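User: Let's play a game. I give you a shape written as tokens, and you guess the letters that built it. Ready? Here's round one.
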């Protein structure tokens, strides 16, 4: 990443004409060795919410919610998103449900360098393990002042026209104050700024509580190495993203910026440079507690009322033709207190999947021949747990009887000749059974593959 050339849709790695130049920085950049023109490559799991996007070319973006990546409108419509340190050897790839550009964006407006240059992608599969870097919002925007340290991250060129595809990071400063009327902010300095391929990439700021938040999206600037760049302000994109995605990406604020923390107003990224963790668990690191940046933290008053939970699909007693069946598992859960924190799906007594966001639906779950008993658990933010009535289904055979309360085990009898569901049939070592996985299909693309593969338990975890 480094000082960048202005990018426009469809030609994301090419110089296309002379870009608009950013204003000369009003203050000097901090001393730093090296500058970003020779910036260090990110080590394992550093800045894990910074991602690479591929469509008409290479762009960058950032995960601001378990299911939302923000990027620049001029990046077009990415076809895939990768996590990791290099685009040639991504640590993880996640399928995209859909992407949407700000309809107010126009490449003719100031040659693409403007505050309308934002877009988002909704992931097909939520990612609950990575500590999120949410948007700066509400009263928090007061931190965006000249001389405030800021961290720039992206997958663009390192110097000139070389080095694109490796995640790099560097600390610089915000060069301009942000007011109520601001649509953009200037970040970086000569030799210490974004470059081609960094478009859509994040600028992060650290709050006094130690947590990191996203405030800017690279829009454009002068040619590589010549000066600071213009970033579209993320908080201006929030209403557009929330309205069109149906996702609340500001759990501490109402959409109008009013401080109104929910139980999810916590767990944000603290250790963004920790390279001791692994991508196998999505770079999970310690997270901050409940946020109180603009007012009192969420007040978890005593709540001793458990949530309600029920499996609404499939219907108990249903038999499917074998030897294989795919079905959508749909669960209703509600809590009148602080809300549902997590819904868990158990099959034949084994935890198979968890989900923290309604609607609670696991699409295209694959089952092999056998007898299966499904149970859903719901936990609220007060720690109360409830369990649904069991649902029994059969694949290639009759649905099993549901064990009574006096039975010693909830295991079912399963099929013949080793086929079907026993208490271990949905376990991690099973070669037959419900094959739910965390593959790139995700919720929208389906969580199931048939048991020609060893079962991998899908655990969709909350952000906390």
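Assistant: Ready! My guess for every position:
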């Amino acid at each position: 990443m480094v000082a960048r050339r202005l990018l426009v849709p469809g030609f994301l790695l090419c110089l296309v004409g002379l870009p608009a130049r950013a204003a000369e920085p009003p203050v000097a950049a901090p001393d730093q060795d090296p500058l970003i023109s020779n910036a260090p490559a990110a080590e394992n799991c550093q800045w894990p919410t910074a991602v690479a996007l591929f469509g008409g070319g290479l762009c960058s973006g950032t995960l601001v919610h378990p299911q939302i990546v923000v990027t620049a409108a001029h990046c077009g419509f990415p076809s895939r998103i990768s996590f990791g340190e290099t685009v040639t050897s991504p640590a993880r790839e996640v399928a995209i449900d859909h992407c949407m550009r700000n309809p107010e964006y126009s490449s003719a407006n100031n040659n693409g360098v403007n505050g309308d240059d934002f877009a988002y992608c909704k992931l097909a599969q939520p990612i609950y393990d990575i500590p999120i870097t949410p948007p700066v919002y509400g009263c928090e925007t007061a931190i965006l002042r000249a001389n405030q340290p800021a961290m720039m991250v992206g997958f663009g060129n390192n110097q000139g026209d070389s080095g694109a595809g490796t995640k790099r990071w560097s600390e610089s400063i915000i060069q301009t104050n942000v007011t109520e009327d601001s649509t953009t902010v200037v970040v970086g300095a000569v030799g210490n700024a974004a470059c081609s391929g960094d478009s859509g990439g994040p600028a992060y700021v650290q709050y006094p509580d130690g947590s990191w938040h996203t405030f800017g999206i690279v829009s454009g600037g002068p040619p590589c190495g010549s000066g600071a760049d213009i970033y579209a302000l993320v908080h201006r994109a929030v209403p557009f993203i929330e309205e069109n995605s149906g996702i609340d990406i500001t759990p501490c604020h109402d959409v109008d910026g009013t401080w109104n923390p929910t139980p999810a107003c916590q767990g944000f990224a603290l250790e963004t440079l920790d390279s001791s963790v692994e991508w196998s668990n999505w770079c999970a690191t310690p997270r901050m507690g409940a946020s109180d940046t603009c007012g009192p933290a969420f007040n978890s008053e005593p709540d001793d009322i458990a949530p309600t939970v029920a499996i609404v699909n499939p219907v108990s007693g249903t038999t499917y033709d074998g030897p294989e069946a795919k079905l959508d598992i749909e669960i209703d859960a509600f809590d009148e207190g602080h809300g549902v924190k997590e819904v868990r799906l158990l099959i034949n007594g084994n935890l198979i999947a968890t989900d923290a966001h309604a609607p609670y639906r696991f699409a295209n779950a694959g089952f092999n021949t056998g007898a299966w008993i499904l149970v859903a658990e719901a936990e609220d933010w007060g720690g109360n747990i409830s369990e649904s009535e069991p649902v029994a289904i059969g694949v290639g055979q009759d649905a099993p009887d549901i064990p009574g309360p006096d039975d010693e085990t909830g295991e079912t009898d399963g099929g013949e000749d080793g086929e079907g569901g026993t208490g271990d049939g949905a376990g991690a070592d099973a070669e037959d059974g419900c094959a739910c996985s965390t593959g790139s299909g995700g919720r929208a693309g389906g969580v199931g593959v048939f048991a020609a593969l060893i079962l991998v338990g899908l655990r969709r975890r909350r952000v906390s």
